[in-house]
Amino acid sequence: MSENKNIQNRRAFLKLSLLGSAIGATQVLGSEETRVLRQATHQELKENFPNSKRIKTICTHCSVGCGIIAEVVDGIWVRQEVAQDHPVSQGGHCCKGADMIDRVRSTTRLRYPIEKVNGVWQKTSWDSSMDKIAKKITEVREKYGPDSIMLIGSAKVSNEQSYYVRKFAAFLGTNNIDHQARI
Question: The dihedral of CA 150, 155, 157, 158: what is its sign?
Answer without folding.
Answer: positive
